[in-house]
């Protein structure tokens, strides 16, 4: 346990977020803020222990190329303990690299690894990374504290009103990491910033959700908060039973609501009803996004049919590529249009590399069309390969009106696209 490592001899702790492959524009994105490390920092400070955070710690480590003189990332010359976080199992190699790096720099200092990968695969994590100990699950004492946001440059805060989830979805590891369902009755005293991001796995399932939403409404009215978003989707089964919650969400200021459509095409009426509950609450269809799990049991053709329906309803899609909870392969490369094999990344038996790539492209183009209120997409126009005056004219026309000889790569989200349909054109433009 974490507490076993915090003794009287520990005066300083180095916290490390490995160099995960996060796009530069998302380095401080809400989805990737090392919130666990920030809570640990608050816990350690309460015990009068010095902390320092290193974000995007060393990667592609080669011990033969490194010495202590190269250590420039931290002013903490002699930490007594090093804590490294992990996220997805398929980013395990980045955790291993970070552990190796800091073991080389501080060979006598114990290194702990916690987080999602560590909790889902503790034995693998310890053996694969070479760390001294693995911390599984939450550190409950830290959960009660406000994270040390002074260690990061962000203008928002993250809040959990619940831990765990009432559902046990096959593709989700939440139940394994947080098996106990815990609910907060109030969060108003936790608000320290005007922008708030909820990290709940199932926010609406909180038995005190009405009280929490009313708190948020009051905070908005008093201008103590200005932006609210939920990282996860809203449970549509709860929305159906309690549609008034959607109105409270809207009044509180929740942005970009998401629901999930993990089931088959036969669930279309139910999903449409969930969307309408949000629309009736005041959300525009294009503000709404539908989670879709692909590379799983449902085939490409069925996912495409679901996608086309979503365009008919005017909503966006958040696509989620399925990977087993114990999968550490991370070789998928979107630039390899000639294809990859299951040796490089997980491909479900019901899917192919071609189908995965095509569905990803379809979703991207679909969302562009929804956001811009158009019914076709052209890469040539997006990349400004069409003369400006011509592009201006055609942007005002529908897919059925445009001249396909002028816009030969026009793609419409209105129809289901065959997996073998040609996607790329070699066109000479002036």
UniProtKB/TrEMBL annotation:
The keyword Secreted does not apply. Gene3D superfamilies: Cobalamin-binding domain. SUPFAM superfamilies: Radical SAM enzymes. The keyword Nucleotide-binding does not apply. InterPro entries: BchE-like (IPR051198), Cobalamin-bd (IPR006158), rSAM_sf (IPR058240). Its cofactor is [4Fe-4S] cluster. GO terms for cellular component: cytosol. Residues 10-156 form the B12-binding domain. One of its GO terms (molecular function) is cobalamin binding. This is Fe-S oxidoreductase. It comes from Methanobrevibacter smithii.
């Amino acid at each position: 346990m974490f507490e076993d490592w915090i003794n009287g001899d520990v005066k300083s702790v180095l916290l490390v977020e490995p160099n995960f492959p996060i796009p530069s524009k998302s380095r401080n994105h809400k989805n990737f803020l090392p919130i666990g490390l920030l809570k640990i920092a608050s816990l350690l400070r309460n015990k009068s222990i010095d902390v320092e955070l290193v974000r995007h710690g060393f990667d592609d480590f080669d011990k033969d190329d490194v010495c202590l003189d190269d250590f420039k990332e931290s002013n903490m010359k002699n930490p007594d303990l090093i804590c490294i976080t992990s996220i997805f199992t398929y980013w395990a190699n980045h955790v291993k690299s970070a552990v190796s790096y800091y073991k080389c720099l501080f060979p006598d200092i114990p290194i702990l690894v916690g987080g999602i990968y560590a909790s889902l695969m503790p034995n693998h994590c310890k053996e694969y990374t070479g760390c001294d100990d693995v911390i599984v699950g939450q550190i409950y004492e830290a959960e009660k504290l406000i994270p040390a946001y002074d260690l990061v440059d962000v203008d928002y805060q993250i809040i959990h009103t619940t831990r765990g989830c009432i559902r046990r979805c096959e593709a989700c590891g939440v139940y394994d990491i947080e098996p106990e369902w815990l609910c907060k009755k109030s969060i108003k005293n936790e608000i320290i910033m005007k922008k708030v991001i909820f990290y709940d796995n199932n926010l609406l399932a909180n038995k005190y959700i009405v009280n929490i939403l009313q708190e948020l409404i009051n905070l908005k009215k008093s201008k103590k908060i200005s932006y609210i978003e939920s990282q996860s989707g809203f449970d549509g089964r709860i929305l159906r039973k309690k549609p008034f919650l959607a109105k409270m969400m809207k009044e509180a200021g929740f942005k970009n609501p998401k629901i999930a459509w993990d089931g088959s095409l036969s669930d279309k009426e139910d999903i449409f009803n969930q969307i309408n509950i949000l629309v009736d609450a005041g959300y525009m269809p294009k503000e709404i996004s539908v989670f879709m799990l692909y590379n799983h049991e449902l085939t490409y053709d069925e996912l495409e049919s679901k996608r086309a329906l979503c365009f008919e309803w005017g909503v966006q899609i958040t696509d989620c590529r399925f990977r087993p909870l114990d999968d550490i392969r991370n070789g998928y490369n979107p630039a390899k249009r000639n294809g990859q094999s299951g040796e490089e990344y997980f491909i479900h038996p019901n899917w192919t590399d071609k189908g995965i790539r095509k569905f990803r492209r379809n979703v991207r183009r679909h969302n562009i069309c929804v956001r811009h209120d158009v019914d076709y997409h052209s890469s040539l126009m997006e990349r400004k390969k069409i003369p400006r005056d011509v592009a201006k004219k055609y942007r005002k026309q529908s897919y059925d009106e445009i001249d396909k000889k002028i816009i030969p790569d026009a793609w419409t989200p209105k129809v289901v696209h065959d997996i073998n349909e040609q996607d790329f054109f070699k066109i000479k433009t002036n």
